[in-house]
Amino acid sequence: MQRWFRGERLSDLHQKLREAQETLDAIRNGEVDAVVVNGAHGKQVYSLTGAEQPYRVYVEQMQEGAVTVSPDGLVLYCNRRLAEMLNVPLEQAISSKMAKYLSDDAWKRIAKVFQNSSGVVKHETMLRCRDGSELPVHLTASRLPMEEKGLMCLVVTDLTAQKEEAKLRLAKELAEKANATKDAFLAALSHELRTPLTPVLMSAWAMETDEELPTRVRREISMIRRNIELEARLIDDLLDLTRIARGKLELQVGAMDFHSVLRQSIEICRPDSEAKELTVQLSLRAKQTRTEGDAIRLQQAIWNLLRNAVKFTPRGGSIMIRTSNDQQDHIVLEVQDTGIGFDAHTRNRLFEAFEQGNRSITQRFGGLGLGLAITQSIVESHGGSVRGESKGPGRGATFILQLPLRPASPDTGTWVPHSASPVAERIGLRLLLVEDHVDTRRSMEFLLARHRHVVKSAASAREALELAANNKFDLVISDLGLPDQNGLELMKQLRDRFGLKGIGVSGYGMEEDIAKSRAAGFVCHLTKPISMDRLRQAIADSAKA
């Protein structure tokens, strides 16, 4: 059975199509200057030179695929871009069926263009390629009113790049949402972990400083207090990691002496090094030690290096701490131990968060693997660097911290360690204590009264407002998470109605939490668990403010 098309065999039509393709190729290659077309209105001559020259290669230069299709789906012409999309030779694409590359539904949708001579059909679908893969595309079909049935002009746009961009945007949005959720979880977890530690820490401090207790008991209490503070430090490390990831690790820059910061860090680690009978040697050869920086943060960085040395050095080992000045106006700190050391592979991951070399090290020594990552961020934020070296497992390790020496501004104060700065404390202050956690409230009441302050306490915002209305107070110490009202709102009322200043106490300690406390009228924001030393210092500072 032979199929006829306008009185011609299909094979003859294919021959004409091939001839048309050859003509198009000749046009594309610049071999033809003009085209003569016999149409219904007579002979028409189309010049392909001069001003109209660019149009003859326009279709071939398109980034989109272009194809002319008959009503039964026969591809009469396509450009090379579409052939590339289909991954087929150009001559095979021409005279094939367009439905071969589309789903039945997609072909039916775009074929509707033949039912409307002035319409345009758009559809997003998948283009089937010769190798079995699929390409996301957007189809724009418009009817060309030629002869009785007309032809379809189909523009095929590859959406791969747009889809990838959309995937990346979605992945970014999901990652940001997950990160925000993680931050909220860590903040809530921090609050829940910190709150019960406060009364334990304060009670331990009270017993440790009670001279009526035997020395042996006080020594054991001291060990309990140090471990509570270590737990608090681990919680702080989690929040610091969040700050670093969000680019919100803030620095309180001032004049400082590096050796003073170092000695304070050594004193903090002394009980742990003595408990392991470690020999700690100092060689402080640096002559230039005064600089400008955040002393508290740098103390944290140095403490992390010292704690690592103590932690990974076996009982009876030794730690050497050296300082020096190089020729580039830097101060250099070296912490060398006789501990477990590490190999070259581990060295490359030392400063990655949650890394401790391998799982066996984590199981043996504990910890979260955050200290070195936080140390690196603190040091680099000061323009310095830190690195680790080791000759191999079992051969000890050396960590080298380099910090540029910067002259301090004339108006910046000099940091002094708390241990060298006795609290100029006023006694007999009338304090309003607002705390709904029973154990914390009782511990704080006892210790504040022990320091000769007059304390009245409330378990809610309502009780606090009643006490403030009927009593005269010098200072408010208030938790921020109260059962009946936010502590921030309470502070605003106490400030506006009674002119009171306050110290905020909370298990939340991110920068935005501190900023909200200050805006509400709190002079100081303490993050739980709070020690009595910190509370006494805050009371002294607030009384002077």
Describe the fold and architecture.
The protein is an alpha/beta fold. It folds into four domains: 160 residues, PAS domain (Beta-Lactamase, 2-Layer Sandwich), CATH 3.30.450; 82 residues; 156 residues, Histidine kinase-like ATPase, C-terminal domain (Heat Shock Protein 90, 2-Layer Sandwich), CATH 3.30.565; 120 residues, Rossmann fold, CATH 3.40.50. Helices cover 44% and strands 22% of the residues. It contains 17 helices and 21 strands. Strands 6-5-9-8-7 form a five-stranded antiparallel sheet. Strands 11-13-14-16-15 form a five-stranded mixed sheet, covered by helices on one side. Helix 8 packs parallel to helix 9. The protein is elongated and about 110 Å long. The termini are far apart.
Compact summary:
The chain is built from 17 helices and 21 strands. The chain has 545 residues and is an alpha/beta fold. It has a 5-stranded antiparallel sheet with strand order 6-5-9-8-7. It has a 5-stranded mixed sheet with strand order 11-13-14-16-15, covered by helices on one side.
List key phrases describing it.
545 residues, alpha/beta, Beta-Lactamase, Heat Shock Protein 90, five-stranded antiparallel β-sheet, five-stranded mixed β-sheet
Topology:
Blueprint: E1 4-5, E2 8-9, H1 10-28, E3 34-39, E4 42-47, H2 58-61, E5 65-69, E6 75-78, H3 80-86, H4 90-93, H5 104-111, E7 120-128, E8 134-144, E9 151-158, H6 160-208, H7 215-245, E10 254-257, H8 258-275, E11 279-284, E12 290-293, H9 295-312, E13 318-325, E14 330-337, H10 344-347, H11 359-365, H12 371-381, E15 385-389, E16 397-404, E17 430-434, H13 438-450, E18 454-458, H14 461-470, E19 475-479, H15 487-498, E20 502-506, H16 511-520, E21 522-527, H17 532-544
Parallel strand pairs: 11-13, 17-18, 17-19, 19-20, 20-21
Antiparallel strand pairs: 1-2, 3-4, 5-6, 5-9, 7-8, 8-9, 10-12, 13-14, 14-16, 15-16
Helix pairs in contact: 6-7, 6-13, 7-12, 8-9, 9-12, 14-15
